[in-house]
Amino acid sequence: MAEVNSKPHKGMKLSFTEVLRFVMVRWVQHPAMLARTLGGVGLATLADICTPLLAGRLVGDISTTVLPSPAEGGRAALLHDALLMVSGLLVLGLVGVMGRRSSYLGISKLSLAVMRQVLDDAFARVQRFSSDWHANSFAGSVVRRVTRGIWAIDTLDDTLLLLIAPELLVLVGTTLVLLVRAPLLGLVLAVMVVLFACLSIWLALRYVAPTARVSNEWDSKMGALLGDAITCNAVVKSFGAEQREEQHLHSVARTWAEKTYYSWYRGTNSANLQASYTLLMRVVMIGLAVLFWWRGAAGPGDVAYVLTMMFLIQGYLRDLGQQVSQVQRSVNEMEELVGLFATAPGVQDAEGAVPLVVTDGAIELRDVSFCYPSQSTPIYRDFSLKIAAGSRVALVGASGSGKTTLTRLLQRLYDVQNGAILIDGQDIAHVTQQSLRRQIALVPQEPMLFHRTLAENIAYGQPDAPREAIEEAARLANADGFITQLPDGYDTLVGERGVKLSGGERQRVAIARAFLTNAPIVIFDEATASLDSESERLVQEAMARLMTERTVLVVAHRLATVRDLDRILVFEGGQIIEDGTHTTLMACPEGAYHRLVTLQSLEHG
Ligand SMILES: Nc1ncnc2c1ncn2[C@@H]1O[C@H](COP(=O)(O)OP(=O)(O)OP(=O)(O)O)[C@@H](O)[C@H]1O
After folding, report:
1. Are 362 and 279 in a shared domain?
2. Same-domain status, 327 and 213
3. pTM for the complete prediction?
């Protein structure tokens, strides 16, 4: 018994550290790029940490008021030392430039590698999520979640590795140097640095993050609404509902702006608080240095060292508040993307699943029970059915009686909760999904075409098929006629989802696809909207050709199309209430099929 448990990932709260770990694990997978980045950052920062030492010594040299007499050679020695310090400062500056260049080049490669890897993985996961997940997710919102998350990785990498990592290094480095040089001052600085770190983390996680999360949820809602309205533009137009949709977007955008402003407001407060704290840190440290000098416990060189060091720290920490907010914003932006990785795929291949081998195409449903995850009542309870190999079977009955559901279960788009579905005696739960679906050609009610050429669309199941095979499939599907009349023939782009083709043309392209894949089992979900009679004839003719020597299930809405099939199953509330040929079923005037046929012939005059 399998569970369909892949719920769309909405509102799942991941911890800050979970998201950070997600990125860091991927950094480590690119050790050379990471080493180049961190090496460069380390070198440049080290050069900066050493700068106050040299500057302090330089000031010490030039502030020696009683210069030794030239005869003693002391002046020359002082000048020599001062010039050495000047050269040292130049060298440190150059090391800083080289280190930064190396880190920028390293991080560019690292970020792009991680972004590509996450994009690939996210797409692979989304593609494999259950049909239910897709039915419950807005395409626009999913696209937004993924793209926003990918770019957040770039920002996060830059902020953490190029900005915050050197800042931490400077804080720790200067504190250590000061602890050695002037232990009391070093201790004060250490305490203030620890307090600063605690304050920054608290502000990021507790103060700003919750509001940023809400802002992102509204951003996704906005993406979903845009995607939905644009996808359903034909419906919007037909009801003249453009204004209604615009008002809807306007109201969602207003809430998004409110929530986002609040999040930015808190971000600004947080940054201001951190900036004020660093100012306080500077005043305290310089004040203490001056006090020490006054008491004779420190020389001008020491004061110059503290001054330069504090300016250095101030320079590094000036934007730390913004950066911490940026990290937290990036983490929030990635939460929904990382959430996709925490969502279980719906239908999975069983352990040791083998490819399905179809010899005849016999189908059996054995005591099947099935309920959609979002429904409370099952559609099928202990449902059993045998379909002989090579037979052409129509599934008819009222709307919602479970015909399409049966075809979905046969493709294992959902797992049954009880019982088994067998093809040539093999339980489809134990074969690979890919092999199963490759053996079943589907001509859906509303075939979806990619915005690619007609040839590519026909060859979707057999991308290596030669042009002759594609054209032959199109001929068999009665699609060749209309395709060759198009200006670019088989190279015509069909528009998003195939909007540039008529319903009948799209169906014939889908039939051509089925011819090319040459699958032994065919499911034909008849379009509910009636085609014009010429188009209908062409589709029927193509279907009749496709049906030979295959097991065929036709979900039929127009009963005239099923008369000649081998078997007709009449569905009602997830049960088969009649089973026979057109002739046998019509022989029973009280029967459901007879009633449906009479009803339809009355409707169609
Ligand atoms: N993804 C889904 N999630 C939840 N319920 C669903 C889903 N798809 C279909 N249903 C419900 O399952 C029932 C059977 O639907 P199904 O599509 O199998 O009917 P059908 O006989 O093919 O109808 P039609 O002739 O209108 O295509 C309906 O009540 C429908 O609302």
Report:
1. no
2. yes
3. 0.70
